[in-house]
Structure formats: structure tokens, C-alpha cells
């Protein structure tokens, strides 16, 4: 699940979360999990801006194999290596997949058109259609076969792979990759003999992996991903070779401590009732309110407009009075959630008060006491672009729009009059402002109480579905949020008595999902018998495949964040339309249109057989294969929704090389410090960590040198990187080890002190020393 801009915001807020991966300088891990679709996309279409780019399937397969080898070599898992490819997704996810695939097809067509208009000559080979990275396509079936070959080859020939259990959950196993991984982790956690010190590493590109990882409440959990570079040009060449890629580890052990700091104010208010694990659960829930792949963001609620700090501040003010938490192990406490939203809904009025100021200014410009729907929309636009001056161009645009608005609103009664109190006028225009939103965004003629109640129910139902999905797995394959837009916070009320239940149903078959999410431009990815359903004017579902469609930024800044305004698929209509053609599928197509189990592979020296390659010219057959395969039934890892996860006994934990803030005394505070993250200065508040001075009094350089020279220590707090001290200096004098060239030794002081020499720093060296110290202090 993607949460746009979340990863960057979190990394800026908590600057020490991540560390650059350096060989032999990261923690050891037991289990490595790969959310494979990011790797598949990276290796198949690294730069969509290059319309000349062509690549063969064989090259894609080889590059994917290489990427997997590099990631395995970096992490070196001790027990489990889990590769999860996206299978058929829940219906709630398909709406987002559908919008994304329609947009990518349209963008590709536009880029090709522009290139041809410029006179560019494009290759005659067909371009790679990234929409083929969807369960059930011929490409995914061939990739699955090659992944099986790859696993057999590595386990048979590579000793590092022979000590681990290798799981391959392919596109035929239903579920999103990261959620299949979490299902496995939940089932392991639920076992009576689960080791709380298990060390997890999850590779993936989606920002929500932070939330998913935290739902496990596992103390030793890190996320691996490529370095993110923001602000670069689209045409800039992306690094695709894993050897040239800088990888980062984001440590959830630190994230847990940062969350503890974020809500530390609650410790003093709640005393013994303060529970970090429950705070983390509520933090995950709050992250859903800025929008994700399953529900849209709340109106005007944007991460880059400080939505997250507002959520946290409101939570701190409300929680002590609730008598409990919002998220109870994946179950929404509706009473507490309603009280939280009630307080949070003050944001709607605060935001509109800014719009209202612009409305009054506009009123003074045009001489009208009330602005109709059209003018209200213009004022909203102006408020969204706050900070900009009310230029002549803006005045002309507003005047033109309100002129058209007058025509649209002809005959309507003006709301309010000169004698009306300003508070009443504010409330009247606030209601009209929201009414305009629902009428223009959702196309309703009447915004009734029943309509608003339905909006509130759907939204809360969506939050509960996502909570279930994160904590318990899919609770309904068929549920989805039926609107492109979310209601206002102030309209989500009277929810405490709702009864939220879900019918589990069944996942779509692969071809059903293909027809549900692909645009007509990608129809060749479907079996031939279904293709006319996308293009024929006689098709009963032709309305679901518009060749052109609108997008709506809806307060966002980037086109890729825009709402794709295409109709939602009607499941019954879709399946009914497919039924007459199902018998025309070939045997090969029928084999692709199925669900299957996850496979577990392990080394077995007693087995020795030949594994034949389907691409022998590229990947030779494995003459001596020593691999045992066990199929895992699809429901094996299901954990009941009522299961309460065992809390780790903190006294039984050790840090295993994982970073923690607790090793050095420090204080923390939030401040806009412009910390450089991802090559740019951060704009919001940073959680600053300031080391507290030692209580041991003034230290003498010579005494310190006698204690630590030649000793191993951990540096770069809070990340635990082992180092050996070779010199100590106070800016004037330098004590350094005196060893023969090429000798690196750890000295035991009980035997004899290490050989050392003393020197005095020159003026130039003293200046460099001061510069180095300042650099360390600023970090």
C-alpha cells in the first residue's frame, strides 16, 4: 500500500531512523522477506520517460535473478528467505490498481505521440507494457517458472542458501506480496515457541511497510530499500544495477522509540495507563487518515500541509479523557474514535475560516453579499494556494468564474443579509461550502442527512476494513470504498453505534482481475476470447473501459497523485459478461487462471535429480539438484482475528546490533532545524536529540587515550557500528597508536598498554580538528 510523501515526511521528522548499508556494518538477520513487485518493476522498465527503451523477457529474468542475489548477499539471512509476488488483490485494492494502470497506459500513449510529432524514429519491437506485471498474464506465468528455476539452482549450488528455508509465494497465490509476508510473520508470532529475539528484514518500496512492520510488535525489525532521491529531473537516468545502488536500512526499533518521544507528553498525563504498544497501534490508525490505496484522503488533509502533526496533537489532547485507546488489536473502538474525530473536526472549521476571509475579501471586490457554489470553489482554490498575493490575474479569474456562477445560481435566494450575525453567516456559508463539495465532487443533487450518514458509515467501514487487513489479513475480498472522495471530518459523526461486519467471500480468479483492472490499451495481455469485452460497442461492460478520462488533483500537487475519474467495476456485471466466453479458454490459459499454494524449498543432500530449464540457452539445466519442495496450503498461516499477540518480555530481549536511543543520555525536542534528508533541507519540524554532558567532570586527553586506544567501540550513535580507536585528540595534543604498517590489533590492557606516540597539532591541523568536531556536533 502506498502513502504518498509519508516516507519522506517520517524520515525528516525522525532523522536518525535510517542508515546507509555498509558491508559487515549492519545487524545480523534471521529472516529476509522480499516484496517482489518493486524488483520486477525496477528490472523491467527502469525509466518510463525513455520511449526508445526496449528489453527482452530473458534480460528481465536475468536482471531479477541478479538483484535477488545481491539482496541475499547484503543481508545474509540465517533462517528464512521469503519471496512474495503480488497475487490477486482484494477488491478494495483493485480500484487503485485500475486507476494506476489506466493512467500509465494513457501516459505511455501520450509520450509516444509526442516523440513521433518531434520526428523521432522509434524501435519496431513492441515496448514493454508494465501492465503485464499483473497476476494471470503470460509474462507472470513465465516469470514464476524462472523463479522456481532460480531457487532450485541457488539452493543446489550456493552454500549460503543451503542453511535457510526458502519460501516462494508467486502470483498464483492470492494476496498482495507484503500482506502474504505479514501473514507468515503473524503465524510465527502466534506459535508457543516463538523467539522474541527473531531479527526481521523486509525489503520493499511502499511507505506503508513501516506501519505493517509495527503491527507485528516485533522488537527487531528493519526495512531495506533503495536510496530515495527527490527533486531530480524526470529524464535523469536511474541507477538500476544493484551494485551501484545505495541501500538504506530503516530501523523500526528506532521508530518505536521515536513514537514514544512523539507522545511523551501523555506519559505525564496518564501515568501507569500509558502503554507504548497501544500508542503504536493508534499511531498506525492515524496514518490511515491521510489516505492510502484503499480510501481517499480527507478533504484538505495533506501530509505536506502538516496533517500528521495535527493528528498527533489532537490525539495527545483527547486520549487522557477517553478511558482507553482507539485501536484495540485491529478492532476499532467506535466510541473513542468518534470522540477523537469530533475534536479533529475542528480542523474543517479552521480551514474554512481561512477560506471565509477570502470570501469576505472577494465580496468587497464584487459587491455581492453571498457567493454561490462557483465562487465558493474559487475561494477554496485561493485558500489552497495560500501565501500567494491576490494579483490582478487572480482577480480576473475570480471575476470570470463568479460571472459564470451567477448564471448557474440564477433564481437562488441569497444566504444571509446585512443584519445577520457574522457567526450565523459563517455557519451558513460553511454548510454551503461543504454542500458544494459533495455536489461537485460526488455529483449528488441533494446533500441530505441520509447521504451524509451513508458517507460517514462508508468511511468508518473503510477504516475498520484496513485495520483488519493490517492486523488479521483479508476479512472481505469483495468490499471496497465506493467513492472517489472522502467526506469532511465534521460530517463523520454518530458512528459509535455502527455494526461493522464483513463477508469474507472469495478472491477473484486471475483473468477476472485482469479484466477488472486493465485498460483497453493493454487488451493483448488478456486471453483472446475476452478482448472484445473491452472494445466492442456491443459489450455489456464497455462503459468500464473509457478511452479518455479526467483526473482531479483534489488538492495534491503532482499529477501521479491525482484521482483517476473512471467508473468502479460492477462485479456481477463483469462476471456475467465473462461467462459466455469461459469455455473458449485454451488449456494453457486455463492453467494460468488458477490459485495455488506457496512453496517451501530446502536443501536435501540425499536428493539428486536433474532439474530441466525451460530456457536452456540462457539458464542451463541443473544436473545435480538437491532441493526438497513442500506446498503450504493457502490458509495455513491464518490467525483468528481475536488472537492477542504475545508481548515480548523486555528483560528477555537483547539488541542484537539493532540501534537504540537508550545507550547514551540525551534530551529530545522538536524544532525546525532544516536537517538535510535525501539531499534536501527538511521543511517541517525535526525530532532533535541533544547529548547531555558527562557528570564525570573534566576529562584529560592523556587519561582517555590510556583507557581507549586500541579498544573496539561502537560509533555513529544511535546506529551500532563497530570501530577501533586509533587516535585521541583534544585539539592541541594527539595520542595515536604506533603500529607497523598493515597491523590492526585489539589490545588487552591487563597485559600491556598499546604502543603509542604523542604529537602536537599544527595550526592547520587544529583548524581541521575544530571543523571535524563541528561536523560531528551538527549530526
TrEMBL record:
Positions of the Xrn1 helical domain: 274-601
Residue stretches of biased makeup (Basic and acidic residues): 760-771
Keywords: Cytoplasm, Exonuclease, Hydrolase, Nuclease, RNA-binding
Principal location: cytoplasm
Xrn1 N-terminal domain mapped to chain residues: 1-227
Subcellular location: Cytoplasm
Assigned GO CC terms: cytoplasm; nucleus
Signal peptide segment: none
Annotated InterPro entries: 5_3_exoribonuclease (IPR027073), XRN1_D1 (IPR040992), XRN1_D1_sf (IPR047007), Xrn1_helical (IPR041412), Xrn1_N (IPR004859)
Pfam family, one: XRN1_D1
UniProt-annotated stretches for the region Disordered: 745-779
GO molecular function: 5'-3' RNA exonuclease activity; RNA binding
5'-3' exoribonuclease 1 D1 domain location: 655-754
GO biological process: nuclear-transcribed mRNA catabolic process; rRNA catabolic process
CDD domains (alphabetical): PIN_XRN1-2-like (cd18673)
Source superkingdom: Eukaryota
Family of the protein in this entry: Belongs to the 5'-3' exonuclease family.
Protein name, UniProt field: 5'-3' exoribonuclease 1
Biological classification of the source: Eukaryota, Metazoa, Chordata, Craniata, Vertebrata
Underlying gene: XRN1
